[in-house]
Amino acid sequence: MCGFAVAIDWPEAESTVARLIQGIAHRGDVSDPIALASPTVAMATRRLRIVDADRAVQPQISSDGRLAVSFNGEIYNHEALRHELAALGAEFKTESDTEVLANALRVWGFRALERLSGMYAFVALDLANGEFLAARDPFGVKPLYLIQGPTGFLFCSEMRPLLDCVETGDVLLLPPGYALSRKSCARFKSPVHPRRETAVENDARALDRVLSQAVHRRLPPGLPAAILFSGGIDSTLVAHYARQVRPEAPGYFVGNTRAPDFRYAADYAARTGFDLRIVPFDPESDEVFEAIDRVVEVTESFEPNLVRGAVCSLVAAERMHADGFRVGLCGEGADELFCGYPPLEIAFSDGDAVEARAIREDVLGLMHRVSLQRVDRCSMRHQVEMREPFLDPSVVNYALGLPASALVREANGLPTGKAALRDLYDLYPNELPSSIRDRAKVPFGEGSGLDVTPEASGWKRRFDAAFSDRDFAEGRLAFAGFNLQSKEELYYLRKLADVMDVSRVPHLRDRAWINFPVAQHREKLRAYANFSL
């Protein structure tokens, strides 16, 4: 819902935080006043007003005046927590979920994190003794970066403002599901960690109930919501459940009538009267390719799987914002949990449950570096908070407990994932088209018409034209620590290096690759059309 900056024991704290907030002004529609605890401690927020828009000014203070909290995200169970805390004596001045968090930390301490269901990053400051706690949600939906100086810490919701404000020192990311204090940095127990091994019986009606509730929890009271819609299995389910209570909610389709995904999206719209809004996107135009400079700057990444999708996500968020939406819903997380990618389909069909679960953990653990980073940066660039129902703890724990047979089944001679989600379509045959139920996974960018297939790709030919083989060899030397594998990666990395000092961001060198035995499964992978080795 916003972005924040916090300086703790940092020289010139107020002016530094003011500059950081200026660097993330796009993440909200109002700047809350800078709060000074001392000359070296400052907190500020650029807030997107969603929950209790007028009174939820940050930082929020616990009812005893002890804790101040700067927060980014949404706690979906904040009303239930509010009732618990009120029964324990906590008093509230607002309806803000940030105030609930401040009181929860005061009443339950570190263990409050075990109770939170949501997407979040925050810094909580003890105003009495100067101690702090910074934490990030278990999947890393919301970002949090920091620089640790000789005497203190500087936090911000994006990387580039930190690099621009401080001339030396590395920008570090707080990993998903971790909490940081002066004394330690450790993973915390949450509703989805540690992972539960409890078996789940595959029951379409049970999943129907769990997923519908997750979608409904993410619809903002008193505000309209939009849906990022591709006509794929996941986004169609999100639209279906959202429209059970918000039938007017529109879907935004990026592409044109010739895009591979369009016929599926149009099929659902024609069957249900869905308000399908087409966001024009011509993948062959020079304008799209020239947008890479802006996309790389916005996403703060050079990972191809992130940048390709972001070319589409950014224009969708821009249109949602222009149409007056502050909240959107998307299908992120479904492929990772329900096995929608070839490596997961192969792993869960091979019978080695331990290896399959390990690969899925890899995939889930990298979401914050790829799909979720894309979603956060592109939506927040245009003041839209995108929400991910598939990452609700109830859905996550259901998916992780399913047997392989409920996740992957054979179709057309290939292991095919998301079987449990496909089964939901049979519950609503008049509303959910079988054409969508039976379709294969297509990445967002490709479904919008962006051709990034291994052979004869117009998109990839552009990078071959931009760099000779010698240019690529020299580029790999110049960025030796980044393990570049293609001219496409070099192109993006050079663009990123033009706007920020990538040498000061260590996690960029640790590439977002999963640990999958490619050589062992090479022939199977080749059988999947559009899968690039």
3D structure, described in words:
The protein is α+β, with helices and mostly antiparallel strands and 533 residues long. 40% of the residues lie in helices and 16% in strands. The chain folds into two domains: 2-187, Glutamine Phosphoribosylpyrophosphate, subunit 1, domain 1 (4-Layer Sandwich), CATH 3.60.20; 204-447 and 500-526, HUPs (Rossmann fold, 3-Layer(aba) Sandwich). The strands form four sheets. Strands 1, 2, 3, 4, 9, 10 and 11 form a seven-stranded antiparallel beta sheet that branches. The chain has a six-stranded antiparallel beta sheet with strand order 5-6-7-8-12-13, with helices on one face. A five-stranded parallel beta sheet has the order 16-15-14-17-18. Helix 2 (78-87) crosses helix 3 (97-108). The mean pLDDT is 93.
Structural class: alpha+beta
Helix content: 25-40%
Percent strand: 15-25%
Uncertain segments of ≥5 residues (pLDDT<50)? none
Report the CATH C-level class of the largest domain.
Alpha Beta
Counting structural domains, the number is: 2
In angstroms, what is the radius of gyration?
Answer: 23 Å
Largest sheet: 7 strands, antiparallel
Assign the CATH topology of the largest domain: Rossmann fold
Mean residue pLDDT? 93
User: Mind telling me the CATH superfamily name of the largest domain?
Assistant: HUPs
What is the 3D shape?
Answer: globular
> What's the architecture of the largest domain in CATH terms?
3-Layer(aba) Sandwich
Cα distance spanning the termini: 37 Å
Please provide the count of β strands: 20
Number of helices: 23
